[in-house]
Structures are given as structure tokens and as C-alpha cells.
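Need residues for this backbone.
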């Protein structure tokens, strides 16, 4: 068994590292599967998510870390380009996201807090923040993304897991779901660069 913590950096079109969106995944990868091949599968999952929902993205970087404090840094890194940035795929408010929830049980509702987690999918393309709720089309994009993450590598060699910090354990993810409400991740917002003021008296 070889568990890894996987950092996925979704790069902003302004190329500023501080504006990257970061997701942390966890995988158990065993031979003959490799970190390189599994990275390619994870990147394919993200490229599907980008094509179907996200905007303002200029490539992704996947970094693999051994569990722990990792004073030596990532043990494997790979960068991927995405479809060319076009105005139609510009991001809306970067705080807006769609939540993919996962659990270590077949019934997500039955999982305790220690046995479930979330991936906040964003930034959302401005053209897709078009209703009060997340449409079934976009929820299916997110669920397809989750299925693709679970299918990374070859069955029996690679397993998508969650990390319970409380129990310091890596546990197999069994189910996913996506609710129809938009989520908010305030820390993802861009810093303001100017203010508009008026003197009213």
C-alpha cells in the first residue's frame, strides 16, 4: 500500500500563484500503476470539469506528496495545459463553486463527519452561473468528474481515498453526490485593485 496526498492547482488566467484554486485529493497507488499515469487520468477528469463548468482557467499542475510533513517536497509533479482561454469561458465571481461530496459508505447520508468530505469545484464560468440553483446538466458534469477521479488508474491497483485527520487514516471512497445549491468559498476571491468613491455632502 502506498498512500499519497495529491495537490491539484487550477491556474488562473492571470498566472499569479496566489490566485490558483487548489484541491487536495488522496490516492493509494500500487505497481504496475505509476504516479505519471495516474496523474494523466486525474488531469483528464479535471479537463472534463473545465470543459463543462469552469472558467478563467489556464492549465493545471498535479503534485504528489508522501504522507506527513514532507520536508523534501513533492515526489512527482506534472503540468497540463487546458483548452485555450476565451471570453465565453471567463470565470464569474471566483467565490462561487459547486460542491462534490464524497463518503466512505454507499449511503452518503449514513456517513459520520469523519467518513465524508468535499471538493469545491470552481471557478465557475460566468456563462454558467445562470440560475438560482445548479442545473441537472451541471450537477451531472460534477458527478462525472467524481466518477472519473474514482476510475483513475487500474482497478485493484489505484484507489481514490479520503484522509481522516482525526483518525490519521486513509479510507476508500464509496459514494458521491452533488446538491443543487451554489456554494461560496470566500478565500478564493481576488484582491480588490481599486475603489470607486463619491463625495455626497
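Answer:
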Amino acid at each position: 500500500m502506498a498512500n499519497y496526498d495529491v495537490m491539484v492547482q487550477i491556474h488562473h488566467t492571470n498566472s499569479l500563484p496566489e490566485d490558483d484554486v487548489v484541491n487536495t485529493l488522496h490516492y493509494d497507488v500500487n505497481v504496475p500503476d505509476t504516479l505519471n499515469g495516474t496523474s494523466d487520468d486525474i488531469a483528464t477528469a479535471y479537463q472534463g470539469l473545465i470543459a463543462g463548468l469552469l472558467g478563467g482557467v489556464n492549465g493545471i499542475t498535479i503534485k504528489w506528496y508522501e504522507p506527513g510533513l514532507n520536508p523534501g517536497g513533492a515526489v512527482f509533479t506534472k503540468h497540463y495545459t487546458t483548452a485555450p482561454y476565451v471570453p465565453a469561458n471567463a470565470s464569474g465571481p471566483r467565490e462561487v463553486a459547486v460542491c462534490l461530496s464524497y463518503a466512505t459508505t454507499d449511503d452518503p447520508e449514513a456517513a459520520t463527519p469523519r467518513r465524508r468530505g468535499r471538493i469545491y469545484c470552481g471557478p465557475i464560468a460566468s456563462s454558467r452561473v445562470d440560475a438560482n440553483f445548479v442545473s441537472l446538466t451541471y450537477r451531472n458534469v460534477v458527478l462525472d468528474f467524481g466518477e472519473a477521479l474514482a476510475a483513475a488508474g487500474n482497478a485493484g491497483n489505484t484507489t481514490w481515498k479520503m484522509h481522516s485527520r482525526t483518525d490519521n487514516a486513509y479510507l476508500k471512497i464509496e459514494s458521491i453526490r452533488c446538491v443543487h445549491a451554489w456554494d461560496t468559498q470566500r478565500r478564493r476571491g481576488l484582491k480588490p485593485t481599486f475603489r470607486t468613491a463619491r463625495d455626497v455632502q
